[in-house]
Design a protein that fits this description.
This protein is an alpha/beta fold. The protein has a single domain, classed as Alpha/Beta hydrolase fold, catalytic domain (Rossmann fold, 3-Layer(aba) Sandwich), CATH 3.40.50. It has nine helices and eight strands. Strands 1-2-4-3-5-6-7-8 form an eight-stranded mixed beta sheet, sandwiched between helices. The protein is globular.
Length: 317
Amino acid sequence: MRRKALDGFVILCLLASIFLSACGLDANANLHKAGAAALQEEPVVAPVSSPTATPSPEPVIPTITLTPAPTATPAPSATPTALACWSQGGRLESSSLRSKYVPLPLEYFIYLPPCYDQQPERHYPVLYLIHGQNYNNDQWVRLGAGETADALIAAGEVAPFIIVMPRDRSWTQPSVDGFGQALINDLLPWVDNHYRTLPSRTYRAIGGLSRGASWAVHLGLSHWELFSILGAHSLPVFWDDTPHVRAWLDAIPLQSMPRIFMDTGEKDYLIQSTLWFEGILDQKGIPHEWYLFPGYHEEAYWHAHIEQYIRWYARDW
C-alpha cells in the first residue's frame, strides 16, 4: 500500500518533470523567435536635437576705392580767326533792270552784308525798303539803314541780311503805277536768282515810309505768300486800297499773318490814315506792334527811329 503510494508519487513527479520540461522548451522557443524578429527590425533611434550651428562669420571684403581714370580733356579747338571783313561793314551796289510794268528801268540799291564775298556758301534773308514820295531810292541809305545794319551785325545783335531799296518814279495810285507789279514779278525773282538769298517768305520782309509804307501795306497784304514781315512807318493807305484792306486781311490764314509794325509821329499830318488802318487791325484782333512817338512827317523823325526799325525787321532772323 505504501509502495503503491510511493510508486504513484514517483509517477506523478515524473509527469510533472516532463510537463515542466515541455513548458521550458516552449518558452525558450518563444524567446528565440522574439529575439530573431528584433534583429530583423530597424532599430528605433530616438531623435536627438543637434546643436544649432553657429554661422561662420562672413569674410570681410576690404573696401577698395577705385580712382577713376582721368577724363581726357579734349585739346581746345582753334578759335576761328575773325575775318577782317566782319568789321569793315557791308557794301552798297546800284543796278537796274527792265520791266514791262514800268516805262523806265527799275533802279535799285542793294546792301550786301559784311563778308558777303568771303563766305560764298552763306545765304541771307532779304528786306525790301521803299522810299517816300518826292524822294528816290537813296533815301534809306541817307537815313542810315546800311550803317545801322553794319553796326548791329558786327556786334552780333542781328544776323547778316540783304537790303533791297528800289526806286518808284511815279506818284500815282497802284491802279496806274506799275511799280508794285514790277517789284513782285521782276525785281524779287531777279534778286533771288542773282544774289545768295533765302528764297522763302519766312526770310523776306517788306517795309517803307510815307508812300513807301503805302506800298508795303499794298504788297504785304495782297501778296502775303511772299512776305512774312511788314513794316509801315508814317503810313498813308492808298485810296485805291481802302476798299480792299479788310478783304485782304480776311484772306490771309491766321497762322500766315505777317508780323506787323506800325509807327507815326503824333504831329504827322497823315496820322488819320495810320489810325484808320490800325483800327481795322484792332477790330479784327490781328496782332501788331503800334507806336505813337513825338514827331512830324519828316526825315528827322525816321532817322531818329532807324535803329529800332532795323532791329525789328531782323529780330527773328
